[in-house]
Amino acid sequence: MRGADARPDGAAAPVEAKVDVVVIGAGQAGLSAAHHLRRVGFEPERDFVVLDHAPRPGGAWQFRWPSLTYGKVHGMHSLPGMELTGADPARPSSEVVAAYFTSYEDRFDLRVRRPVEVRRVREGDGGRLLVETSDGVWATRALINATGTWDKPFWPRYPGQETFRGRQLHTAQYPGPEAFAGQRVVVVGGGASGTQHLMEIAPYAAATTWVTRRPPVFRAGPFDEERGRAAVAMVEERVRQGLTPLSVVSVTGLPVNDAVREARANGVLDRLPMFDRITPTGVAWDDGRTVEADAILWATGFRAAIDHLAPLKLREPGGGIRMEGTRAALDPRVHLVGYGPSASTIGANRAGRAAVRDVQRLLRTEPVESAESAESEDAPTAA
Fold first, then answer.
1. Which of the four, 194, 232, 272, 284, has the lowest number of CB atoms within 10 Å?
2. Which sign, positive or negative, has the C-alpha torsion 366, 372, 373, 377?
């Protein structure tokens, strides 16, 4: 169905089609949502579309560095309805997950459109939202946003940053440890990526320095169900208040394994407080301490990639989007999955299912799956 819709600037935006639901993003959360849409009777291309900006299946996993093997991945859970089994732990996680997502899309005939860049989502006519993309415009009754964080790396700013003569790069650009052979490397960030980068780089580098804003919290013992619930509850409370979600490590701590124990014993994970400025040849503190560096690796995390939703004015004064379950409090047509408390593989699965149930209510359709059958699909995968 083609037509046209007038934009506020007066230009005509051709409408590609009218659908009930648009899913933005084909990572774990987006594929989970698409799967559950199919389960309750929505047909791809007729009732819903899945739009993904990546060139191929795999979500953000396809962009992970080669040294992040599948065996190093913590807590990878299967997508609903199809387990990931028999994966080689020595194979790069980017390859394992990309192959799995490809098979999943094919098996459930999800017909993901890619590469499609979503430019903005705005109000349309008749209660519909207009999703403007590089491949036309969709007029939809509901939106499930599953864009994650990988496309929005966070780069802190420090005095003198532009004067540094060495190389600065973010986790999103991390090429693997061999690229730092013989170099003096400063790693910034107290999360899982920062510690993994340090432990990988140390055997190759001439020297490594670890700096973090806060002292890292190492967690001994298993991350059991009780701890998991407590961590999720903390993040849920923030998004209910419209604050930006906390990072995972800030509520879970860093797990201690044999590699971490060895790195701590060898001094690789001896942490320094955050430097005060960057110099042409390294970093410096106000107390007079300096460290010479050839490279600064910013393992400083990511922010939610939701700028395309800005025209809907969903953000609260606290900087985040206030959520009621997966639904944006200010617009019941908009659901965010893989955001805040659902920013994990099993959380994304459950959020996809919850969003579809809520969309059904919004569109006045009857759910057809039982809670028991849905819960059985969230079985964890052994890495």
1. 272
2. positive
pTM to 2 decimals?
0.83
SS3 112: coil
Q: How long is the chain? A: 383
C-alpha closest to that of 245 among 153, 355, 319, 330: 319
Taking only the tens place, the pLDDT of each residue in 61-110 is: 999 988 888 988 766 789 999 999 888 999 999 999 999 999 999 999 99
Q: How far apart are CA 271 and CA 228, in angstroms?
A: 26
Q: Give CA–CA dist 166/180, Å, rounded.
A: 12
Q: What is the DSSP letter of 109?
A: T
Nearest-5° Cα angle at 261, 260 to 263: 60
Helix axes 28-39, 93-107, angle to 10 degrees: 20
- Complete DSSP assignment for 296-319: EEE---B----GGGGGG--B-TTB
The whole-angstrom separation of Cα 191 and Cα 198 is 11
Residue 146 CA, distance from chain mean position: 9
